[in-house]
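Contributing new complexes? Match this layout with cobalamin.
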Amino acid sequence: MNVDSLPQTLSVFLVKPSKYDDDGYVVRHWRGVLPSNTLACLHGLTEEVKRRGSLGEVDLQVHLVDEAVAKVPVRAIVRADRRPGERAVVALVGVQTNQFCRAADLARELRGYGVTVLLGGFHVSGMLSLFSGISPEIQELIDAGVTIVAGEVEEHWADLLRAAHRGELQPIYRYLDQLPDLKDAPRPIVDKGYLRRFVSSNFGTIDTSRGCPFNCSFCTIINVQGRKSRHRSPECIVETLRQNYRERGVDFYFFTDDDFARNPAWEEILDALIELREKEAVSIEFMIQVDVASYKIPGFVEKAARAGCSNVFIGMESINPESIKDAGKPQNKVADYRNLIDAWHEVKVSTHVGYIIGFPHDSEQSVATDVEKLMKEVRPHRASFFMLTPLPGSRDHKNMVEAGAPMDSDYNTFDSFHESMPHPLMKDGAWSRAYHRAWATFYSFENMKAVLEGVHPDRYWDVLRNFYWYKSSALNEGAHPMITGFFRIKDRKTRRPAFRREGVFAHARRRIPEIYRYTRGAIRLTLEFEELWLQTRTRSETEVRVHEELRRMREDLSRSLRVSELRTAYLRAKSAIPGIEVPSRLRLMKTKLSVLQASRLRETRSDLHSFWNRLRARLRQGRVDALLRFDRIALNALREVRITAGFFVALAAGNRLPSAGR
Ligand code: B12
Ligand code: SF4
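Output block (do not edit by hand):
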């Protein structure tokens, strides 16, 4: 090959595909909630290839596209590929089974323009790990000229890019039996430009380890990433976190390890994070995934909390011992659940359990009873419900394929909130009903109120915000919170090939009622959450004391409050409770509004609710005279505005007045 004839620029587009909704539109939101760690990892690997100059003099350009929050710029990619001296390579990354259909359509479209396309992630890795042959949907892509990559590529990415640059890619690469050592692997990159598309731009991800020692039958991880936990070096992790904190302001992480408690280096990592926090004032908070027995590991829970862990996700799966047996997860002992939850709550860490519905012994009634038990007896702060899904890469899937068991031929439904196979007991929609009822019961006003009343004040807003996101996703948008974000976008022109493309008016006829229903639901939800807040908002000892002092200083708290007055109230409160810290002037200015709002609120808006309902009923009966009471209407509207303003101010400000940890 004549190297001089090769393009001088290689534009690498790392694209994380989304999935289709039931109407064939790509699931995309104006703002996302959870950034993709796979994108961050491949970004890190690509920058490393560039830094090392592994491709020689080639100008390597990297572009990140997460289709969950951005449109895939097909035209720009094609233009880049056609520019003289340039080649575009599209890497469809982290493609899960439920994203495979969308990824395949994108791959075919790009191949139609002659663009080089590679595709990797859990679907192809799972399929190729458990079956010796190549499944038809993968073969179809190979036939279309797409390169399939199974397994982890830390040690192969430079070679793959070199082959792509030279136009020498093979149809398929299998790296499943070459699990890379992660000790000094290139780190995932937290990209500020990418994070701007998310609700919190201070949110980073890193996989501190990969692999899991357990052996659950529905799990794909063990067959792709292995049963031995491989980890990054604690020094590398801590240096990454320190750098991201200082240079990019990233102070919250999702450590995406499937079981951080089984990372052999957990203690060194947590010790280093404690040191960062306590000696360098680099205060990072993070969430982790752990197993049920994690609380029994000596020192684990305490160290995690001290290191900044604020949330744990626990793969509880079911509270029903029969279902735990069905899940092939004997390490989950139902008798441990309550102790586990208490242990984490004790150290102020919020708990979130993963709960699967649809094990063979589950029935509509048993699921309802089990969810009640989960709420009343186990009492986690949050639950995510999943429908049992035969995910490619799991033993369950392999066994079903080999037994010829029926399952959906459309992988788009393998997202854990669609029925993707028949259930032996729950038929004719009963499984979906049981699933939706689980969400509605757990996120009912009564249960959310019970949780918020028991939550530590430091976690109050964290839990309340998550409740809002979860309830809005599952019950207003009708999708799993893990794939939703804020404000759904439906691009008229990007529709699944089996669906007809709608005209502008037909699309508007679809979207306007949808947006109306969504907005109405969002308003209802906001009112529900205002009530929840009024009934449960906790006041720290500091807040109560500062308010008392303010009331002593002046009767009317509705007049505007000066920062100097607030400071005096703090100083007086400090003389009664020495632990109170007097916040800086800037912080006082920021909290002034919430202090005022909070001091004016009552404990409920139920009287307002009844008032508006009565008014509406009268208007419906044609009694327009009801509007003549405009003085009451105006007063009540003003109260609504005040409550809403107070709620949003408090939501934005965090939970309480600065309280020195009290
Ligand atoms: C973090 C995470 C999430 C996060 C964020 C997603 C993300 N990717 O960051 C959130 C919470 C949003 C999420 C949601 C869901 N997830 Co998830 N998630 C994970 C988790 C725990 C870690 C992902 C990760 O960072 N891995 C580390 C990276 C580096 O590994 P990797 O993605 O495999 O990438 C490597 C290689 O595969 C390869 N590679 C990947 N792509 C490409 C592309 C090319 C071209 C090349 C060359 C190489 C390559 O290179 C990478 C570096 O070596 C994985 C389990 C796991 N251990 O991976 C599950 C996992 C991917 N999720 C899964 C599922 C099913 C879901 C959900 C449907 C909900 C659910 N039931 O759990 C939703 C769907 C959301 C959606 N539509 O995206 C499954 C997918 C299984 C499957 N066959 O589809 C997994 C495997 C867990 C499981 N339950 O079995 N998830
Ligand atoms: S489901 Fe969780 S605990 Fe079970 S093998 Fe998979 S990663 Fe490990």
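Reviewers usually confirm one structural detail per submission. For this one: The longest strand covers residues 309-317.
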